[in-house]
Specification:
By secondary structure, the chain is α+β, with helices and mostly antiparallel strands. It has 23 helices and 23 strands. The strands form six sheets. The protein has a seven-stranded mixed β-sheet with strand order 5-8-3-2-11-14-13, covered by helices on one side. β2 and β3 form a beta hairpin. InterPro entries: Aminopeptidase_N-like_N_sf, AOPep, ARM-type_fold, M1_LTA-4_hydro/amino_C_sf, Peptidase_M1_C, Peptidase_M1_dom, Peptidase_M4/M1_CTD_sf. It holds the Pfam family Peptidase_M1. Aminopeptidase which catalyzes the hydrolysis of amino acid residues from the N-terminus of peptide or protein substrates.
Length: 772
């Protein structure tokens, strides 16, 4: 990795500027005010700091310093300051920072107890005033996990401490991607303040949060999984290695609900005479700042009178020890081992509350219990589910203690249970892979996505209580569908965006200061492709899922699931690289071949093509014969077939056979390969399978058929899909435009004009290039 001074990110690469090798944020205390009217979040974030792994006693400020500052937005004298002073670099963009100040934690009376404890441990003479704050903060950070309540209380007290009056002021500077802070005359990390308060406000156009309207046309805001993560929500250290805890106090209009990634089920405190309520959340498990999640809106909670927490016996491990840093870990709690179903809540806009209560909430206990049976201890003690606005760019997104679901999973009634249940199980899998075990390098999202896609089938089958044969048939069908989609996706994407490890042997490497670049992270096509892959179960637009299928075929399903459980036990609470997972599982296989065939090259490995062919051979004879019959029937209704013969009136020879949604998707995909289908066929297909009432995946394939064959009578179905299923509809814009049909192009432009202001930024940029 080149030094920081050489770092010149292109348009596509995201810079991680934080100098995490020099200094680390161990805890954040956020105090935020949400204004839905002005679309601004105002507040403070307090950082509790600790020297990083390369912070030697004599480390000078200039080593590993960031790129030369761009024109200052905050301090005109910044460039005149000595570059020999140590610089704290935080990832930050689209924030207006008004003040950065050092906190006088010695003024917090409760902290003096820590000072006495330090003196009692044989450190000799008490620290001098200049270093007393550093000693106190280090002692606070180092408190054992058994004292986490005391620790969080002290963090909160310190966050309200006055600014330090001695030692000189802090100066700061912001450029496009960072906030940089110095203290005049302080040249070493050891002398740098350990507790800072940053006063700031967000900008409406900031990319970390989405200001939009919910399905009832009421204002809301939520973190939307932006490519820039949370740096436009609060100044932070974004590299995954900067694992931290946090606590947050959020004030919002009294009628609103505030959901946040926290371990506690917060209840609002009404602030008299203000019209506001305050919500307090915290986490004790260190995680990357990118996993911090916030949602504020006029949501309502669904109720489930039948819900009860479920426990099982005999799963504990008396000799279990953790390998991560000290925190209150559920894996060491016997009660967590026996808890199949964690406490959970369901939220939605009022207009969708009934659907959420009927279609999603009843699935949760079974899915949670199946996930527990498959993977073991739930990493997080509770879960909130939120139905997010229609503009959400994916079917789901998992964060600590909270899952966002698209409204698309709610439609289809009984027919939609498969899509809803599968998506729930996918996001639940991320509690283990993606959150409890994270990727050390962001370019390796395939680790979490590939594993989660593979596990969703197993967990969903167990939640449905399917037999072994039914489970195998369902998995084979889904594998076949994913292989077809992957093959199609790879034909329409750049090779450089298909590589699982774009940094190859440099994966995980950073500069001397800890800064790095995330390749292609800002490429709208990469971002858009990633969202599409999440929607259509094509992990990372490369075959991470296929790799899991391949490995399971080599070692056997039960051994592979056993590997997952052992892997979780060993690596929970930690960050990993792909080499780690491969090494653990493939001790008897050739790692070089795995890297070469699966991780370091674009396209589909030959063995993956064999997997796809294998799934087709397995599935087709036993369960898909009637799909062949159905395809032949619909083609038979086309005008090019049977000309010159008297045919029965359309519909009389249709023997409807009810099929699973995945089978119907496969049927429609095969019909999409036909060059011609008659209006009669399309009309009868729609009526026979009641397509407008099917789940979103089926309706998406139906819309593709409508567009390909210019079936104008069903253009209303396409318009409805583009407006109400935005997470899945972006591809359709391209298909409407590429047909070069004026009516279809007008339809695309009309729909885009209706939703463009609410669309995800990356999706909007892609669609703009298509239609404008």
């Amino acid at each position: 990795m080149d030094g920081d001074g050489d770092m010149d990110p292109g348009r596509d690469d995201l810079p991680l500027r934080a100098n995490t090798n020099h200094i680390l944020v161990r805890h954040y205390v956020l105090d935020l005010d949400i204004s839905l009217q002005t679309k601004v979040i105002t507040g403070t974030v307090v950082l509790f700091l600790e020297p990083g792994p390369l912070a030697g006693d004599g480390n000078e400020a200039g080593e590993g310093a960031p790129t030369p500052p761009q024109p200052s937005q905050t301090d005109d004298s910044w460039e005149d300051e000595s570059h020999r002073d140590f610089t704290l670099v935080l990832d930050c963009c689209d924030l207006t920072v008004s003040k950065v100040e050092e906190l006088d934690v010695t003024s917090v009376s409760d902290m003096q107890g820590l000072l006495k404890e330090v003196k009692g441990e044989g450190l000799g003479v008490g620290p001098q005033p200049d270093s007393q704050s550093a000693v106190l903060i280090q002692r606070l950070i180092s408190l054992p996990s058994t004292q986490w309540k005391k620790q969080h209380h002290l963090y909160f007290q310190c966050s309200h401490a006055p600014a330090s009056e001695g030692g000189g002021p802090l100066i700061f500077h912001t450029d496009r991607w960072s906030l940089q802070v110095r203290k005049r005359g302080v040249r070493t990390i050891q002398e740098f303040p350990r507790a800072l308060r940053v006063c700031y406000k967000t900008k409406p156009e900031g990319g970390s949060v989405r200001w939009t309207k919910d399905q009832d046309n009421r204002s809301c805001v939520y973190t939307a999984g932006s490519p820039i993560n949370n740096r436009a929500l609060f100044p932070c250290q974004e590299p995954p290695v900067a694992m931290s805890t946090w606590q947050a106090q959020v004030r919002a209009p009294r009628e609103c609900v505030v959901l946040l990634s926290g371990e506690n089920q917060a209840q609002p405190t009404h602030l008299h005479h203000t019209g506001l309520s305050s919500w307090d959340y915290y986490v004790t498990m260190p995680m990357p700042a990118s996993t911090f999640t916030l949602a504020v809106g006029y949501w309502r909670q669904a109720t489930d009178e039948k819900h009860s927490e479920s426990v099982c016996l005999g799963l504990g491990d008396d000799n279990f020890t953790c390998c991560h840093t000290d925190y209150p870990c559920p894996f060491t709690d016997p009660s967590a081992w026996s808890q199949e179903v964690v406490p959970h809540r369901m939220f939605a806009p009022p207009s969708l509350l009934q659907k959420a209560q009927v279609q999603v909430l009843p699935l949760l206990p079974g899915c949670l219990a199946a996930a527990h049976a498959t993977l073991g201890v739930h990493p997080f003690p509770r879960l909130d589910i939120l139905i997010v606005p229609a503009s959400f760019s994916s079917l789901g997104m998992a964060s600590p203690h909270i899952i966002f679901l698209s409204q698309s999973v709610l439609f289809g009634g009984e027919r939609g249970l498969s899509l809803c249940g599968s998506r729930l199980c996918h996001e639940l899998s991320h509690s283990w892979f993606g959150l409890a075990i994270g990727a050390r390098d962001w370019t390796e999202e395939w680790i979490s996505e590939g594993f989660a896609t593979y596990l969703e089938d197993i967990i969903w089958a167990r939640a449905q209580q399917l037999s072994s044969k039914e489970t195998e048939e369902q998995s084979q069908l889904k594998a076949l569908l994913r292989w077809r989609r992957l093959s199609d996706e790879l034909q329409n994407s750049e090779e450089q965006l298909q590589i699982l490890r774009p940094n190859m042997e440099s994966t995980g490497q950073v500069s001397e200061s800890g800064s790095s670049l995330v390749k292609h992270a800002l490429n709208p096509e990469k971002t858009f492709m990633f969202c599409i892959c999440l929607v259509f179960d094509v992990p990372s637009c490369s075959d991470g899922y296929g790799l899991c299928v391949f490995l399971a075929s080599k070692v056997g399903l039960e051994y592979f699931l056993h590997f997952f459980r052992l892997f979780i036990k060993k690596y929970h609470g930690q960050l990993i690289l792909s080499q780690v997972g491969a090494t653990v599982l493939l001790q008897s296989l050739t790692l070089e071949a795995i890297y070469a065939d699966w991780l370091d090259r674009p396209g589909v490995p030959k063995v993956s093509c064999m997997v796809g062919t294998y799934c087709m051979q397995l599935y087709w004879p036993e369960r898909a014969y009637y799909i062949d019959v159905e395809v032949a029937k619909w083609i038979g209704l086309s005008p090019s077939v049977g000309k010159g013969r008297k045919r029965k009136k359309a519909g009389l020879n249709v023997n409807f056979k009810e099929v699973m949604p995945e089978q119907l998707v496969l049927l429609l995909e095969i019909l999409l390969e036909e060059e011609e289908l008659s209006v009669t066929s399309l009309h009868t297909i729609k009526r026979t399978y009641d397509l407008p009432k099917q789940d979103a995946e089926v309706r998406h394939r139906w819309c593709e058929l409508v567009v390909k064959h210019k079936y104008a009578q069903a253009y209303g179905d396409v318009e409805h899909f583009l407006i109400h299923d935005q997470a899945m509809g972006v591809y359709l814009y391209g298909e409407l435009m590429i047909q070069e049909d004026s009516r279809q192009q007008a339809l695309a432009r009309r729909c885009f004009s209706l939703v463009q202001n609410e669309m995800d930024q990356s999706a909007r940029r892609v669609v703009e290039e298509m239609v404008l």
